[in-house]
């Protein structure tokens, strides 16, 4: 059994939120063998997981030949983490199914100035149920949710199904916490207990088109524009690229074809904010209009607007925002929490921000062998990077664990000089493996960049450059 197997099992234990066991394994295999590069890498990983680990300190002393009065805890760890135990756990990692349960989710959530912990676990196909616990005060269970999926165990996609169910139930608990559903329990005036659900998780996370060729419909419950008959409904899958239509108040033409003789306006964009003046609203004729100097919605004085930035298209009673992938992008104001991914962009005030992946650590021991000393490394799920004109990157802030708050006075990423950013503006957090962006009730809103086709509803607000406009549907 090699030390590489020990490192592999330790990473697996960390994924199952068993950090203490992983540290003990790493220390025992680092100390019980030659003081070489492999052993030092195991010890370095133990210190990364727990910078204050007493066991890691004992392993360091033994590897360096430093005598100590009591190495009992280290000897106990070496006795437990034998080659046979490592081999047994390696077999579990390689199992093709999840009879003994999938790896769960664990997240800290900030609410009302307090930190809560949400834990979701699966019990496996032999005991098919999912349990989510909400913890407060360092260990007090506030509420527990349970769903049984015994009727679904024979599905061909059971692993994917259970994973989605776990994620949904985990995020549902965070939403209910922020809605104040557990305030009485937190205050000690009510009992939480276990609640069994027979319906799918209730998720109120908005989906937006943030990838090329993505086509996303607005939530039917929030629809302001009457939907078309079922037979005419637009397909959810991305269709072939539509013809780009240009229109103006007096002229409209379909590229390569004669313009229709009769035209009428389908929508109006009311200007909420413009730094350079211009009309109070845009009301282009025809079924589609380009946003940019080459189109009917010509933001001529907007220096951050490309000549062909985006298109708004009316189709069978519904309106769509189409990114033309040419300029700085068009941003849509979120109505509720939005699920984002690494690489997505959003706006807070006049700040354009990017969700980015944290770089891999490169602070391991060098050749020699050589030990290193540094400050403790705390876990972080993502980072947010400020984008400047021309795409240059500005300030960068790493999330505190799984959470980052943005504002002008309170938070991790603070913009004191931006008058459009409120004291506590928005929250970015990792929940169940996804990154969720939430507006904290700000007056000026939070906007996400659209990169595919996104359905628009009456009242939606968009930003192009520094110009803000709201969509008004006109009677047709």
- Shape summary: elongated
What's the quaternary structure here?
Answer: single chain
Major sheet attributes: 10 strands, antiparallel
Low-confidence stretches: 221-259
Protein described:
- This protein is 20% helix and 29% strand.
- The chain contains eight helices and 27 strands.
- The protein has helices at 3-15, 19-31, 37-49, 54-63, 72-80, 83-93, 158-178, 183-186, and strands at 105-111, 114-122, 129-136, 140-148, 194-197, 215-216, 245-247, 252-254, 267-273, 281-282, 288-291, 310-315, 318-323, 330-333, 338-340, 345-348, 351-356, 383-387, 393-398, 403-407, 413-414, 426-431, 434-439, 446-450, 453-456, 461-464, 467-473.
- Strands 10-9-27-26-14-24-16-17-18-19 form a ten-stranded antiparallel β-sheet, with no helix packed on it.
- Helix 2 packs antiparallel against helix 3 (37-49).
- It starts with a helix and ends with a strand.
What descriptive keywords fit this protein?
single chain, ten-stranded antiparallel beta sheet, five-stranded mixed beta sheet
SSE topology sketch:
Elements: H1 3-15, H2 19-31, H3 37-49, H4 54-63, H5 72-80, H6 83-93, E1 105-111, E2 114-122, E3 129-136, E4 140-148, H7 158-178, H8 183-186, E5 194-197, E6 215-216, E7 245-247, E8 252-254, E9 267-273, E10 281-282, E11 288-291, E12 310-315, E13 318-323, E14 330-333, E15 338-340, E16 345-348, E17 351-356, E18 383-387, E19 393-398, E20 403-407, E21 413-414, E22 426-431, E23 434-439, E24 446-450, E25 453-456, E26 461-464, E27 467-473
Parallel strand pairs: 4-5, 6-25, 20-21
Antiparallel strand pairs: 1-2, 2-3, 3-4, 7-8, 9-10, 9-27, 11-12, 12-13, 13-25, 14-24, 14-26, 15-23, 16-17, 16-24, 17-18, 18-19, 20-22, 22-23, 26-27
Helix pairs in contact: 1-2, 1-6, 2-3, 2-4, 2-5
């Amino acid at each position: 059994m090699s030390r590489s197997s020990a490192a592999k099992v330790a990473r697996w234990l960390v994924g199952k939120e068993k950090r203490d066991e992983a540290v003990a394994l790493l220390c025992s295999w680092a100390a019980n063998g030659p003081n070489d590069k492999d052993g030092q890498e195991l010890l370095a990983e133990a210190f990364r997981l727990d910078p204050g680990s007493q066991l890691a300190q004992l392993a360091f002393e033994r590897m360096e030949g430093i005598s100590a009065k009591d190495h009992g805890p280290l000897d106990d760890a070496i006795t437990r983490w034998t080659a046979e135990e490592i081999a047994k756990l390696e077999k579990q990692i390689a199992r093709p199914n999840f009879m003994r349960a999938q790896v769960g989710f664990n997240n800290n959530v900030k609410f009302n100035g307090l930190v809560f912990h949400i834990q979701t676990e699966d019990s496996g196909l032999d005991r098919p149920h999912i349990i989510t616990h909400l913890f407060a005060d360092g260990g007090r269970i506030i509420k527990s949710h349970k769903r049984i999926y015994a009727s679904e165990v024979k599905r061909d996609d059971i692993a994917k199904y259970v994973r989605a169910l776990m994620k949904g139930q985990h995020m549902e608990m965070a939403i209910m916490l922020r809605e104040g559903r557990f305030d009485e329990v937190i205050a000690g005036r009510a009992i939480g207990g276990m609640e069994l659900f027979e319906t799918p998780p209730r998720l109120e996370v908005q989906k937006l088109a943030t990838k090329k060729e993505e086509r996303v419909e607005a939530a039917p419950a929030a629809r302001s524009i009457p939907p078309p008959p079922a037979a005419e409904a637009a397909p959810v899958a991305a269709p072939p690229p539509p013809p780009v239509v240009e229109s103006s108040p007096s002229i409209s033409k379909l590229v390569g074809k004669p313009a229709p003789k009769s035209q009428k306006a389908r929508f109006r964009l009311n200007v909420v904010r413009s730094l350079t003046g211009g009309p109070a609203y845009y009301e282009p004729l025809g079924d589609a209009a380009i946003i940019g100097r080459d189109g009917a919605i010509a933001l001529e004085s907007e220096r951050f607007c490309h000549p062909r930035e985006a298109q708004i298209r009316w189709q069978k009673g519904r309106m769509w925002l189409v990114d033309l992938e040419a300029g700085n992008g068009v941003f849509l104001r979120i109505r509720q929490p939005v699920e984002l991914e690494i690489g997505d962009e959003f706006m807070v005030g006049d700040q354009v921000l990017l969700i980015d992946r944290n770089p891999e650590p490169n602070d391991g021991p060098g050749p020699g062998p050589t030990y290193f000393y540094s400050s403790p490394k705390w876990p972080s799920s993502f980072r947010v990077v400020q984008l400047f004109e021309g795409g240059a990157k500005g300030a960068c802030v790493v999330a505190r664990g799984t959470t980052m708050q943005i504002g002008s006075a309170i938070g991790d990423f603070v913009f004191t000089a931006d008058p459009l950013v409120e004291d506590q503006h928005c929250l970015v957090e990792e929940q169940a493996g996804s990154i969720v962006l939430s507006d904290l009730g700000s007056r000026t809103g939070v906007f996400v960049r659209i990169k595919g086709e996104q359905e628009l509803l009456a009242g939606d607000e968009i930003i192009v450059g520094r110009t803000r406009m709201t969509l008004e549907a006109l009677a047709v």
